[in-house]
Amino acid sequence: MKAFANELAVARGLNETQVLAVLNDAKLNPTVARIVTPPPPGQARPPRSWQTYRNRFVEPIRIRAGKAFMLDYQAELARAEQRYGVPAEIIAAIIGVETLYGKQMGNFRVLDALYTLAFDYPDPKRPDRQEMFRGQLADLIELHLQGKLDALTLKGSYAGAIGIPQFMPGSIKRFAVSAKGEHAAIDLTRDTSDAIASVANFLVAHGWQRGLPVFAPVVLPRDPQRLVDGGLTPKLDWTQLKAAGATLQPGATAGSWTKSALGVIDLPEEPSGTVEYRTATPNFFALTMYNRSYFSATAVADLAAALGR
User: What separation in angstroms does the CA of 129 have from each of 79, 120, 171, 290, 306?
Assistant: First the structure.
């Protein structure tokens, strides 16, 4: 821990004594460790079900709450949409999926959660994850010593995500913005307008394109699995998809998406042995940067579609 404090202080120009004071206040949280502990070897994982996952988020309670949220923050959402080009319903859907519009922001002390995952990560086969959490812990301490948040009291998720949009400390440092102006303090826990602007800024920083749909209106060929690479970057284009047998959906027109990169994603329903496929634009892949998950990004897109009706 002392070596970590020294490296952090030197790398970021911080006071090592102050860094150690924060670290000395941190405590290992066994609940956090238990949540991220992988299943024992040989234990079968639960089957993946897109419909089960989707039904957790695209459901009447969340849709009603989302429409109320959009009405309450209509002006803030409109300003963010005009400035960043991210539709209001997309911003609202992300906040709805992440925290039920600010109602479920997590009850773990973020310092303890990140300290546990940085120094006692329960899966020795994933040193990359431990290193990632050390970086997030470093960002948290830096933000604390800069007076931008209080790491000693701040609550969040078991993985250290913070506030209404569930930003990790690194995302707060790099992508959080104030809706009140460039030099105003940023508060993602209590200020919904800051959360709205920050979500939009995050998406633009990760490739969101104004006016582009999330999914292209495409009918895929009979064997679309061969077009899926499972990655988080679109690597195909409309010419390649047409050559593979894809066509426009009935009544659809060839919009601006035909000039962008595209990717075919798979949404498996393992209990029934079926798969849903969709053709995704760069805006879908911008959504995946939130949780690195096809399921999560598609749930956001489908919730946004329900909120926009």
Answer: 37, 11, 16, 16, 35
Domain extent at residue 6: 1-47+106-161
DSSP state of 237: -
Q: How many domains does the chain have?
A: 2
3-state secondary structure of 191: coil
- Among 76, 81, 98, 142, the one annotated catalytic: 98
The overall pTM is greater than 0.85: yes
76 catalytic per annotation: no
- The answer on 132 and 228 residing in a single domain is no
Residues of the chain with pLDDT under 50: none
Q: What are the Cα distances from residue 27, in Å, to 15, 23, 79, 113, 280?
A: 21, 8, 41, 8, 42
The CA distance from 69 to 66, in Å, is 5
Q: For the segment 143-201, what is each residue's pLDDT rounded down to a tens digit?
A: 999 999 999 999 999 999 999 999 999 999 999 999 998 889 999 999 999 999 999 99
pLDDT at 309: 84
